[in-house]
Amino acid sequence: MRNIVILISGRGSNMEAIVRAQIPGARIVAVISNRPDAGGLEFAARHGIAARVLDHKAYPTREAFDAALAELIDALSPDLVVLAGFMRVLTDAFVSRYAGRLLNIHPSLLPSFPGLHTHRRALEAGVRVHGTTVHFVTPTLDCGPVVIQAAVPVLEGDDEDSLAARVLVQEHRIYPQAVRWFVEGRLQLTEAGGVRVKDEPAGSDGWTVPPVEA
Ligand code: GRF
After folding, report:
1. Which residue numbers are catalytic?
2. How many helices (H) does the chain have, and how many strands (E)?
3. Is the distance from the beta carbon of residue 14 to the nearest atom of ligand 1 less than 6 Å?
4. 84 CA from centroid of ligand 1 (Å)
5. What is the rounded CA–CA span in Å between residue 100 and residue 159?
6. Domain's final residue, options 42, 75, 98
7. Residue 201 has pLDDT above 70, yes or no
């Protein structure tokens, strides 16, 4: 069994998608929110998952909060920490502590549109293709090795909400997939700073770059 801790800040629909995927070999040991009012906490509790709150406002500094968060997480002995709409910039110390076992989902095709308001910025930029990325977390924000991406078209008449909804459908598909690969031990960080996925059935060398899906 691989122990997984999921960090959220809000509605937690990606967390929900991962829980609902019932990934063999994965045990969600806790869902932790930095906001007491995060909607996703209720879903977690209803599904028998320990739902914890660590309010960042109770800590004087980012460092102090991250240290307390790491302490809480480490007590759960996770193999993987999943950021699912966790709206906090993490300190380098925190990120380094979980190097190679910290995943994030970002609502754009990175490296395009790191940071906030990705759907609005995609519309303003006039791109025809937008999407979402699951990546390993490194100290630079929204910039780690890409595990899987899914692309969606930007359609005439789209607004932020319609585009976000189209992207979210893909988020709910690729995040459980990435977690499944991790749990199955099929993700390999390459020396070049990328990710390879050991594909099924094992081919000649067994490692392939995951496809971008439209
Ligand atoms: C998602 O769009 C995710 O990509 C971004 O924040 C949003 C979280 O949504 N990081 P939810 O809380 O998982 O519903």
Report:
1. 106
2. 6, 10
3. yes
4. 6
5. 36
6. 98
7. no
Q: Which of 98, 120, 152 is the last residue of a domain?
A: 98
What pTM was computed for the model?
0.94
pLDDT of residue 207 exceeding 70, the answer is no
Does 212 score more than 90 pLDDT? no
Here the tokens at position 126 are 């006039």
- 163, 171, 172: residue to mutate for ligand 1 pocket, most atoms within 8 A of CB: 171
* Same-domain pairing of 186 and 146: yes
Which ranges in the chain belong to alpha helices (H)? 13-20, 40-46, 62-74, 92-97, 118-125, 160-183
Nearest CA to ligand 1 atom 7: 85
Statement to judge: residues 84 and 169 lie in one domain: no
Q: For residue 85, how far is its CA from the centre of ligand 1 (angstroms)?
A: 4
pLDDT in tens, 5-24: 999 999 999 999 999 999 99
Residues with Cβ within 8 Å of residue 34, at least 6 apart in sequence: 7, 9, 53, 54, 55, 56, 65, 69, 86, 87, 88
Ligand 1: nearest atom to the Cα of 104: 10
Same domain, 114 and 196: yes
Q: State in Å: Cα 13 to ligand 1 middle.
A: 7
CA–CA separation, 5 vs 31, rounded Å? 6
Q: What is the pLDDT of residue 198?
A: 87
pLDDT class of 208 with cuts at 50, 70, 90: low
Residues of the domain holding 86: 1-98
